[in-house]
Amino acid sequence: MRLPRLLLCSWAFVALLPVTSSVLLRVPLRQGPLSQPAAPRGPSRSRRAASGMNVVNMIDNLRGKSGQGYYIEMAVGAPAQKLNILVDTGSSNFAVGAAAHPFLHRYYHRSLSSSYRDLGRSVYVPYTQGRWEGELGTDLLSIPHGPNVSLRANIAAITQSDRFFINGSNWEGILGLAYAEIARPDETLEPFFDSLLRQTSVPDVFSLQLCGAGFTQNYSAGSSTVGGSMIIGGIDPSLYVGELWYTPIRREWYYEVIIVRIEVNGQDLNMDCKEYNYDKSIVDSGTTNLRLPRKVFQAAVKAIEAASSTEQFPSGFWLGEQLVCWQAGSTPWHIFPVISLYLMSENTNQSFRISILPQQYLRPVEDVASAQEDCYKFAVSQSSTGTVMGAVIMEGFYVVFDREHKRIGFAVSTCHVHDEFRTAAVEGPFHGVDLEDCGYNVPQTDESTLMTIAYIMAGICALFMLPLCLMVCQWRFTRCLHPLATGDFSDDISLLK
C-alpha cells in the first residue's frame, strides 16, 4: 500500500470556547459498568415544528467553510443591515464587528441604525484562541431565513479583536446560543435566545443539521463551502433518519452532557468514566474539533494509531501539526477506525452511542490541496477545558437542543458522509450502573470539614504556646523570689521603643 504524501504546513483555526478557570483537583469515582444492548425499546420520537412558522424556509439556511464555522444571515437595526453570523452553542453573547477590520468585507454601523440604544457598558470576551472587546447596546434583530419575528436583543459592537475573525470565513459576528450563566460581562446580560422566547411565541427548542463535506452544492461558491440547517423553534423530521435519542443537559451554562464510555473500533478505552468528563463535556458548534482531556486524548490517539497501523503517520499528524494527502479519490477510509461515544440517556441507568466515522474526524483542507490530491487534518485534539463535541462530530448527526425539557437529542443526519463499508449511527439502549456518577463535580469543602481543620490548627497553636507560657511564668516567679540588689536599676518603661 502506498504511503500517504505528507504535507507540512502552518494552519490556524479558531476554537470559539470561552476560557474557564482550571480545576486543580480530581476526585475519581468508580466507573459504571456497561453491558450489551438491552432489548430494543424505542425512545420517544419527537416530530414537531414551531407552530405557525414556515420550517421549510429554514432548511439550508446555514453556510460556511470547512474548519471555519457555520453562519446564518441576520438583519440588524433599522433600516436592516444584513450580516453573516456564526452559530455558536458554546457561548452566550450576540456580537458583531462594528469597526473596520482587514478580514471583514462589511460590518455593523451603529450610527446608521435609528433603533440602536447604547447601554453605556463595555464587554471583553476571551476564547480558547482569540478575544474581542466592544460596547454593549440593544437593537432590533430578525433572521430572514428563520421565524417570521422581530425582537430587540442585546448586541455587543466589537471594536477591537485579536485572532477572532478569520480571513475568508465570510462571517462578521457570533450568535451565542448557550445560557445566561456564561454571558459576558455577567449573567444579567440576557442572551439572544432568551430574548426571543420572552418577546415571541417561538418554542424553547432549536435544532442543527451541519452537513460538512456531505453538503450538496447548488450555488456558485468556493469548493470548500459547506452548508446545513438551523431550525429555530422546532424539529424537522426530514433532516434525520431513525430515532432521536436524548441525553440530559446536566447543567444550564454550556450545553453540558455526560459521556459514560468511549470506544475505538469497538474496543473500550477502559478509563474511569469521570476522566471523559474531566472539567466538563459540552456540545459546541463553535469549535471545530473533537477535543478531549489530556489522558483521554492520549489513550484515544494510541488506539486510533494502532487501528490504522497499515500506513505510517508521523507524530505531527496526530498532534494536528501536519496534513496527510492522497491521490484524489483514493483516501483509504477503511483503515481508520470508528470512534463511539456513549452518552447517558434520560434513563440514568442506560446510555446510547453515537458512532463517528473517519470522514468526520479527518477534516478536508482544500485550500492547500491540488486538483490531484485530497488532504486532511486530524480533527481530534487535546483540551485543558474538558471534552468538546465540536462541529466535526455534529456533522454526522441531527442535533436537537430541547431547552424546554433540558435535553439534547441525536439522530443520524440525512446529509452525513459515509462509504460502502460504514455509516454514522445512533444506537441503544445500553445498560449501566450509576451513570450519573460519571459527571465531573468540582471538589468542595463543606462546613464540617472547615471546622475540623480549624480545631486542628488551634490544637497545634496551643502545643507551641504552652511551653512559652510556662517559661514566662517561671521567669516572673523567679524575679519575685530574688529582689534586685541595691543599686540595680530596672525601668520597664525604658524598654518601650
Automatic annotation (TrEMBL):
One Gene Ontology MF term: aspartic-type endopeptidase activity
GO biological process: amyloid-beta metabolic process; membrane protein ectodomain proteolysis
Catalytic activity, EC: 3.4.23.46
Signal sequence annotation: 1-22
Residues covered by the Peptidase A1 domain: 70-411
PROSITE patterns: ASP_PROTEASE, PEPTIDASE_A1
Highest taxon in the source lineage: Eukaryota
Compartments where located: Cell membrane; Cell projection, Axon; Cell projection, Dendrite; Cell surface
Membrane topology: Single-pass type I membrane protein
Keywords attached to this entry: Acetylation, Aspartyl protease, Cell membrane, Cell projection, Cytoplasmic vesicle, Disulfide bond, Endoplasmic reticulum, Endosome, Glycoprotein, Golgi apparatus, Hydrolase, Isopeptide bond, Lipoprotein, Lysosome, Membrane, Palmitate, Phosphoprotein, Protease, Signal, Transmembrane, Transmembrane helix, Ubl conjugation, Zymogen
GO cellular component, one term: plasma membrane
Catalytic activity: Broad endopeptidase specificity. Cleaves Glu-Val-Asn-Leu-|-Asp-Ala-Glu-Phe in the Swedish variant of Alzheimer's amyloid precursor protein
InterPro entries in UniProt: Aspartic_peptidase_A1, Aspartic_peptidase_AS, BACE, BACE1, Memapsin-like, PEPTIDASE_A1, Peptidase_aspartic_dom_sf
Segments passing through the bilayer: 453-473
Task of the protein: Responsible for the proteolytic processing of the amyloid precursor protein (APP). Cleaves at the N-terminus of the A-beta peptide sequence, between residues 671 and 672 of APP, leads to the generation and extracellular release of beta-cleaved soluble APP, and a corresponding cell-associated C-terminal fragment which is later released by gamma-secretase. Cleaves CHL1.
Family indicated by similarity: Belongs to the peptidase A1 family.
The protein's name in its UniProt record: Beta-secretase 1
Protein encoded by which gene: LOC107720461
